[in-house]
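Researcher: Going back to the complex we discussed earlier. I've cleaned up the inputs and rechecked each line, so this should be the final set. Can you rerun the prediction on the complete assembly and write out the structure?
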Amino acid sequence: MNPVLPVPGNTAWLLMSTVLVTMMAIPGLALFYGGLVRSKNMLSVLMQTFVTFALMAVLWVVYGYSVAFTGGTPFFGGFEKLFLAGITPESVAATFSKGVVVPELAFVAFQLTFAAITPALIIGAFAERIKFSAVLAFMVLWFTFSYLPMAHMVWYWDGPDAITDAKSLEAVTAAAGWLWAKGALDFAGGTVVHINAGIAGLVGAIMLGRRIGYGRENMAPHSLTLTMVGAALLWVGWFGFNAGSNLEATGTAALAFVNTMAATAIAVLSWMFTEWLVKGKPSTLGAASGAVAGLVAITPACGYVGVVGSLAIGLIVSPICLLFVDKIKRTFGYDDALDVFGVHGIGGIVGGILTGVFVSPALGGTGVYDYVANAVGEFDMLTQVVSQLWAVGTAVVVSSVVSFVAFKLVDLTIGLRVSEEDEREGLDTTSHGESAYH
Amino acid sequence: MKLITAIIKPFRLDEVREALAEVGVSGLTVTEVKGFGRQKGHTELYRGAEYVVDFLPKVKVEVAVPTDRVDQAIEAIEKGARTGKIGDGKIFVTSLEEVVRIRTGERGDSAI
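Model: Rerun complete. Updated structure for the full complex:
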């Protein structure tokens, strides 16, 4: 048999998607978060996001890719591709179609951006009070023990070409990541990225404690203009994140694209109208938050649901997230400063579970592809939702435990919080010796 | 000589400047300030977190005028700044002991 070669169109699409996801993180996420803090902490948030991205990118090529995307146990990969050992421009990686491959280096780069943006998402939860060195130390631990195992569990498998009959399916399933084998669907990273980061954010917000003056002093966002710019960059970049996750430039990529647009658009409206009704005014921050909530919720579902499913997911997610960032946060008193848990964690959970519902062909979804029969298989919603709950539950447990231990270790060694005096003066001058505005 | 200090709504500044120019006041100093009177502040709401903003942005206009022109100047400012709604601002008049034009060293009315 002749070796299968990558098609240029797919390679171009994957590299372009990689650029888009990079743009989501820097500058998108950095500006989105930056605008939400007080002006005295603007640079600290920009720096934490920018440098976390850089640090994770380095760790990814050193050992991250190998641990996430080589075989080993169902929970953790191996070390044979440290420093991308053995990967050449000729190496290929599997896609979701039999007989279609992409350059492995393009896959490495694409996945790098996911590994780099996910830890950066957590920054919003402990913003305005954490030591810069503590951020770096925590990120290394969390990336290694939460992100990499989750990515391995959800996404690692040998590819469709290895599946020809029931017996080979069994072999592929046995070698694959634990949640892949459980049949959980996560098209673009709802569990690996959003629930994972959202839970870490909640644990961080609780363990660091509230900002000084929380609930008494004015902590209003210093520039909703920049937040809006950031949210818009996230929206645009997310097409790379979601449609790019198809790896191939095919109809399914276009499906993911349309779903991403529809779910996000309706989530903006849904957040806005809910807020308008309940709080009296349709706010800019509400619209931006709705967009992010919609993007998060459609992430696991985007390649599996139809447009009715994506509209339903976007419509449902916003009021639930609004409830968490407003009522639930206040009731329990944790200071998730920029609502990482409320938007990414909760939005991810809602999207993860609803993926199992709206993938149903009866509701306009694609169903689940059977690589043995080479057709869409029988669909049972209850079985699928249970698989989804396994994935959601695993992400919650893994991220909670790893985050708790990681924050504790950092607290015992270098300490998590800056001094009270530094916090009052602002992290820009006290941590970085600069100020954002003059 | 009198110093007129007027606190006005920022967007009425151009009208006030024009009205003053019409009555022959050709120099003034403007500062962006914050404060509140009967208008009080307003409430801002961010993802459910409510903040009361006490201080509203205003503009402070300062003009020095000869005593016999004070009434005209006050009327001009009133005309320019009035919208009839709460928050139009206030005018304070204080006595001015001396005025010096630095370039020439002139003093008193001729220095204004």
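Model: Worth noting: Chain A has a mean pLDDT of 96.
Researcher: Good, that matches what I expected from the previous run.
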